[in-house]
Write a structure and sequence with these properties.
Number of strands of chain A: 13
Strand content of chain B: under 5%
Number of helices of chain A: 6
Order of helices and strands of chain A: HEEEEEHEHEHHEEEHEEE
Order of helices and strands of chain B: HHHHHHHHHHHHHHHHHHHHHHHHHHHHHH
Number of strands of chain B: 0
CATH architecture of chain A: Alpha-Beta Barrel
Oligomer: heterodimer
CATH superfamily of chain A: Glycosidases
Distance between the termini of chain B: 43 Å
CATH class of chain A: Alpha Beta
Structural class of chain A: alpha/beta
Distance between the termini of chain A: 36 Å
Largest interface: A-B, 69 and 78 residues
CATH topology of chain A: TIM Barrel
Chain lengths: ~250, ~700
């Protein structure tokens, strides 16, 4: 732990722009990338966000019948790029990859509505817990999705920690041609995954741009190798509501 | 409720009510195998009213008892992929919210997936009604034979041209549509409606309200009805118009109170005149929304109670599962209990506030006096209230004897309601805590014949299994007539609790399923060889079946668990030479302290990849499998073994060099110990590294090791 701490401090000194490399507890104020999930009250830190991932829908998998897109969160936002050059990602959580044509159409329509409202949307993010062993299927799905998106819309996905250690390298490579970034989640629910360091140590296998997803209030100490990883693109913090709130 | 932070879920959801969903609660979870649950976990619901249940599950149990929800026959089981990330269990208990919803939600009507809307289900856009509105408009035109053909055509065209976006961008307000050119008086009324609809979708609510107000006395029946309904919608949308922040999130308490009151009045008037009107279900849902926006918890609770009570098809436009979701996120999440006068909803609220939780999930605990003050609300449901009192005594006051006194002393003979079952199970749990294990054992057994509703029997099996594990009755669990048939429970006990004799018995059993037999043998052999019972291990190796044929493409599933570790030939990747496992065990049987053979034993553990195997990681003490194991000897952790050998001055030469190498590598490359056992600090790792480099400089391991971690 002490070595990691030293390295984390070194990282801070070496690259002051890499916000959030402080060891210990994740304080949203140290970061500039956030997930804003349905039901989480916006916080003042959002005013200085450079990237914002907003959950807007969930593709549900009913036991019988076709998948449906179920709205999450509020109405169309009215955000501006502002001084931080804010980049907005619309996030869809998927419980299934068996999407109907209507779901694709609804997502494209939402993208258009946000852009019509002036929101600086750079892309959409798919949040799907793909089994490590099904990464190749996931890559095929994403490829199909990518083909339906306008060229101006980037594609981001969330990733699981064990992809970097157990994922089939070919499947990971296949993703790299399809998605613009992967945000690796270091937490489950509201808690940082114990032993996340072990997984992150194997990040050398990731050959595509990635960010690290943290949970507000969770544990985080940057591994020594992170700063020098050429694919590392920063952090996204999953915001939570304050303790004792509603 | 999944999380307190879901309080504002569906902020804008639902001109037509809210849709079911899980927001952020749906991450992988691991099952806690116990019945006393005081913290929320997505996969640990039990079929009795419990603080640890998802509050939607508790509400469903009460609705099932009240006949307001119905179970249907289970459909095909979800596959592992469909369940992911929820765990796949062999038995039905514990269960997820989805599991119980699957039994309640009716299968979708054929064709209901033909979704041509641009909006997601439940998306909070008033434009979502545009397509259905166009259809109703055209039906009304068709029902007006006196309309001149030219007017009809103009109106049809104008309705088709109405494609609002509801973007509500203040910088780009929608332009006024040109008036529809119609001649007849009736045509002008339809045109006035269209102008109102356009203004409504564009967010010009004053114009819309004026148009709809003028149509309230229309002789055309549809116009008259829809105008009155739309007056409510217009007021409601105006009430919330300024409530959304830049993120599109609704700010509580910002709604326009005057407009909300207008919406209430308009919907109330509409429902009075059209109790079975085309828009009655929608109006009732929107009344809930108005109560929610206005923070009127008491009204909202009453409306939910009415909505749950009225199960007639058509009385509401959301299904029961969605209504539970809506009540959870809109009412229970932020309710003031003093304003909840509906027993069912108040009971669910109370249970939620008996949780012990921290961090983001923290809730304010309810105290006994506050609970007592609720007694009048439960005047008609004394059993429910005494259950809440008993639950408070048990979970919050840690007074199990007091809980027992509040609960029935006789076991039922007929199938139990979920409340009836809850009362019995809580009594059993309280008996366990008072130390009267025998009485609890008798109760669990006596409840089983009547526990026929879904999930009940599985919960009793878990209760009985825990009782047997702690009360010396493990053999009964595996006896021929045992009522404990849930494969998960049996596996947990074999893996963690069983001693050698029971494991051997199950390994040889003629009646146990193949997986259970294999698991028993695997556990027996692994624990024998890692806990120093080498002679027994050599004897029981004879029970190993012949190796399976090599897996082929057609037959990719190998039997589980895989016995190949016990056939280890001694080869490894790092150059420490070992004989096959059988010879290692034989040598250790003769000399259990020989360092080289002990290193080879650790190599078996390392090479087989059983580090951190569940066999060595016992469950928490309050869960099934968490009692002290009947298999003595304690877990096998490599780092502990390396340290013990290094501490022995007799460990020298190659063996010591390799141990130093291995001990340092336990921290590769993240700095976290992945070998199990007591952690050592960085200075110790550094000392090992330096000793290896200095004392064994010529060894391959010294040359191979470039860092320590």
């Amino acid at each position: 732990m002490r070595l990691a701490l030293t390295c984390a401090l070194a990282l801070l000194l070496a690259s002051p722009a890499a916000a959030g490399a402080r060891p210990g507890v994740v304080d949203a104020a140290d970061y500039d990338g956030f997930w804003l999930w349905a039901g989480v009250a916006p916080q003042p830190v959002l005013a200085r966000a450079a990237s914002l991932y907003m959950l807007r829908g969930q593709v549900s998998a009913p036991k019988v019948g076709p998948a449906r897109l179920i709205a999450q969160g509020g109405s169309t936002p009215h955000l501006q790029a502002g001084v931080t050059g804010l980049q907005v990602w619309i996030v869809y959580r998927a419980h299934t990859l068996d999407w109907t044509p209507a779901i694709y159409a609804q997502i494209l329509a939402e993208l258009a509505r946000w852009r019509a409202a002036g929101d600086p949307v750079v892309g959409i993010q798919i949040d799907f817990d793909a089994h490590t062993r099904h990464l190749a299927d996931y890559a095929r799905f994403l490829s199909g999705l990518r083909a339906r998106l306008p060229a101006t819309c980037k594609l981001s996905i969330t990733g699981l920690l064990d992809w970097s250690s157990q994922g089939d390298p070919t499947a990971l490579d296949a993703l790299s041609g399809v998605v613009d970034e992967v945000v690796l989640q270091t937490y489950q629910g509201r808690h940082t995954i114990p032993g996340y360091e072990t997984y992150l140590a194997r990040l050398g296998r990731m050959k595509l741009p990635f960010k690290i997803g943290l949970v507000e209030g969770g544990a985080w100490t940057a591994p020594a190798s992170l700063a020098s990883n050429p694919w590392f693109r920063g952090y996204v913090v999953f915001l939570t509501n304050p303790v004792g709130g509603r | 409720m999944p999380r307190k932070l879901l309080a504002l879920l569906f902020l804008a959801a639902g001109l037509l009510g809210a849709a079911p969903a899980w927001a952020s609660g749906d991450f992988t979870c691991s099952v806690a195998w116990k019945l006393k649950l005081t913290e929320l976990s997505n996969c640990d619901n039990q079929p009795f009213l419990s603080p640890g249940n998802d509050s939607r599950v508790n509400l469903q149990l009460l609705l099932l008892d009240a006949g307001k929800a119905r179970l249907h026959a289970p459909g095909p089981a979800r596959t592992a992929d469909q369940r992911y990330p929820d765990p796949v269990l062999a038995g039905p208990s514990p269960f997820t919210l989805q599991d119980i919803d699957d039994l309640i939600a009716p299968p979708p009507a054929p064709g209901s997936g033909d979704d041509s809307s641009d909006h997601a289900d439940g998306e909070g856009s008033r434009c979502d009604s545009n397509m259905a509105g166009a259809e109703a408009f055209n039906v009304a035109l068709a029902a007006s034979p006196n309309l001149p053909a030219a007017d009809r055509q103009a109106l049809t065209d104008a309705r088709a041209a109405l494609r609002p976006s509801c973007a509500d961008d203040p910088k780009a307000p929608p332009a006024d549509a040109p008036p529809v050119s119609v001649k007849s008086a009736l045509g002008k009324q339809f045109a006035a409606y269209l102008a109102g609809a356009q203004a409504f979708y564009d967010g010009r609510y004053d114009v819309a309200a004026q148009a709809f107000a003028g149509l309230q006395t229309s002789p055309q029946p549809w116009l008259k009805e829809v105008a009155r309904y739309m007056l409510g919608r217009t007021a409601l949308n105006r009430a919330q118009a300024a409530s959304f922040d830049q993120y599109g999130e609704l700010q509580p308490g910002k709604a326009d109170a005057k407009a909300l009151a207008e919406a209430d009045t308009a919907f109330g008037a509409y429902l009075r005149d059209y109790p079975n009107g085309a828009y009655a279900a929608s109006a009732r849902g929107l009344l809930r929304r108005a109560a929610w926006l206005g923070g009127r918890t008491g009204d909202l609770a009453r409306q939910f109670a009415l909505a749950f009570a009225d199960t007639d098809p058509g009385a509401r436009n959301v299904d029961e599962v969605s209504l539970v979701q809506e009540a959870d996120s809109k009412l229970l999440a932020g309710a003031d209990p003093a304003s909840l006068h509906e027993p069912m909803l108040l009971a669910v609220f109370d249970l939620l506030h008996m949780r012990t939780s921290d961090g983001a999930d923290a809730v304010k605990p309810i105290d006994r006096a506050a609970l007592e003050a609720q007694r009048p609300v439960f005047a008609g449901q004394p059993d429910l209230f005494s259950y809440l009192e008993a639950a408070h005594a048990f979970y919050d006051e840690k007074a199990p004897a007091a809980a027992v006194a509040l609960l029935p002393a006789t076991s039922p003979t007929a199938p139990m309601s979920y409340l009836g079952f809850s009362r019995q199970v809580l009594r059993g749990l309280a008996l366990e805590e008072t130390g009267d294990r025998a009485a609890a054992h008798a109760l669990w057994l006596s409840l089983m014949p009547a526990a026929r509703p879904p999930f009940q029997h599985a919960a009793l099996e878990l209760a009985l299994a825990m009782n047997d594990e702690r009360g010396g009755g493990l053999a009964q669990v595996f006896a021929a007539a045992s009522p404990i048939t849930d494969a998960d429970l049996r596996e947990i006990l074999l893996r963690n609790a069983a001693g050698p004799a029971l494991l051997r018995q199950q390994a040889k059993s003629a009646t146990a399923p193949e997986h259970e037999r294999r698991l028993a043998l695997y556990t027996l052999l692994y624990k024998q060889v890692t806990r120093g019972r080498y002679q027994d291990f050599l004897g029981d190796l004879a029970l190993l079946p012949p190796p399976p044929p090599p897996a082929t493409g057609d037959n990719p599933t190998a039997p589980d668990p895989d016995f190949s570790p016990f056939r280890w030939d001694g080869k490894s990747d790092d150059g420490f030479v070992c004989p096959p496992l059988r010879q290692i065990a034989g040598a250790l049987a003769r000399d259990p302290r020989a360092p080289a053979n002990l290193v080879c034993l650790s190599e078996f553990v390392r090479v087989s990849g059983v580090d951190g195997d569940r066999i060595d990681a016992a469950p928490p003490a309050d869960e099934l499998g968490g009692a002290p194991s009947q298999f003595t000897g304690g877990p096998y952790w490599r780092l502990d073994r390396y340290q013990a050998l290094l501490a022995d001055p007799k460990t020298q030469g190659t063996v010591r060099a390799y141990l130093l190498y291995r001990a340092v590598r336990c921290y590769a490359s993240s700095g976290a110990n992945h070998c199990g056992g007591k952690d050592v600090d960085k200075a110790q790792r550094k000392a090992w590294f330096e000793t290896l480099k200095k004392d064994f400089a010529g060894s391959a391991w010294a040359q191979q090791l470039k860092y320590y971690w």
